[in-house]
Amino acid sequence: MNFMEVIRTALFALRGNWVRSALTSLGVIIGIAAVIVMVSVGQGTQAEIDKLVSGLGSNRLDISSGGGMGGGVRQAGGSRWTLTLGDIDAIRDDIPEIQYISGTLRGGTQLVFAESNWPTQWQGVQPDWFAINEWNLSDGEMFEAGDGAANKVILGETPRRELFGEESPVGQRLRIGRVQFQVAGVLEARGQGGFGQDQDDLVIVPIETARRRLMGSSNMPPGAVQQITVGVDDADNIEYAQGEIEALLRQRHRIQPGQDDDFVVRNIAQIIEARTQTTRLMSLLLGAVAGISLVVGGIGIMNIMLVSVTERIREIGLRMSVGAGPSDIRKQFLAEAILISLIGGIIGIALGAGGAMLVSRMVELPVALNGQVIGLAAGFSIATGLFFGYYPARKASLLDPIEALRSQ
């Protein structure tokens, strides 16, 4: 029998009991659809993590104030002003691996321009902050080193759009709280971040301006900062630089051996790597669940094919008596198993693609549906039919023709 005769015979046999064939393929349909949805969600989540990494930078360290003890009571992290501009200068001067460094102050405020207003977050920063966070301007100019206490502001795209519409705000004056500022520039738009936040909803001012004009009555010591952000010259030096920073700050803050640090150094690369590992494990778990569905579907195919062999023993005997060899019988039953699995796979691919898009819209999970995922699913469906259909096909090919003809 040639290839087309095998396919035609297999289709005729399946059509003779199409309800059973459809029910048999149901396990494969569910398994393939599950594979596509799970893998698409996993890849989409990984892509979001990659986007987050590119936004934060793999050679960045964040240093924030710790809690420590106050009056015999342990205080929460960030509740004390333990970092200063002196710490920034010492890190810059003593650790050559540090390429960029910036202190940061933060607060919430209301922006007012003419009759428009917008609630947002301001950040007081030093010039290196832009390089560390890879922010560029779409309009205007950056702060200069001598602008430490100037009343200049750089707007994110969101407040620019809400306050100025399509007009350029550069050179215009607005109020941050009760303080007048002049717009020096506008940051390039970045859109939604990896954690779902609007990265463009912010305004940037020089750090000394923020300290003197925006902090208000915060009981902040002179020269204090809320956070220090560091950019290391090479990602390979990140752990070494982290150790050097921790040792230097312990020395400057007179922290004795055995005492808790009054600061926290966070390695962004380690945080992202931990999240990546978690996502990878979840993807493997979801893939395993989908794989179990495929195995169950394959066992269903094997079971039905064994029943089919038992029901068609006389047919097998007749075919062998008129010249069909064991290989012809094996090809026929194997083709039937593969066709059941392949048809189920095609339906499963359609349902999986639709399900992935539905998940993206209904649950707002990141989904990456591509040709590789669909090709992988199609390969799984063919492999399932081939693997689980081989044993029934081999069993049929080994029947004795005479005994098969005697079967009732």
Give a brief rundown of this model.
Helix content is 54%, strand content 19%.
Secondary structure: elements and pairs:
Layout (H helix, E strand, L loop, with lengths): L2 H14 L1 H39 L3 E6 L3 E2 L2 E2 L8 E2 H10 L3 E16 L2 E10 L2 H5 L4 E4 L11 E4 L1 H8 L8 E4 L2 E9 L14 E5 H8 L9 E2 L1 E6 L5 H15 L10 E5 H44 L1 H9 L4 H37 L8 H27 L3 H6 L2
Parallel strand pairs: 6-11, 8-10
Antiparallel strand pairs: 1-13, 1-14, 2-3, 4-12, 5-6, 5-9, 5-13, 7-10, 8-11, 9-10
Walk me through this protein's architecture.
The protein is built from twelve helices and 14 strands. The protein is an alpha+beta fold and 408 residues long. Helix 2 packs antiparallel against helix 8, helix 2 packs antiparallel against helix 11 and helix 10 packs antiparallel against helix 11. The radius of gyration is 33 Å and the shape is elongated.
Key features?
six-stranded mixed β-barrel, two-stranded antiparallel ribbon, single chain, elongated, 408 residues, alpha+beta
Q: Helicity, in percent?
A: 40-55%
Query: Structural class of the secondary elements?
Result: alpha+beta
Extract low-pLDDT stretches: none
Report mean pLDDT, rounded to a whole number: 80
Radius of gyration: 33 Å
Distance between the termini: 27 Å
Strand order of the largest sheet: 5-6-11-8-10-9
How much strand? 15-25%
The total count of helices amounts to 12
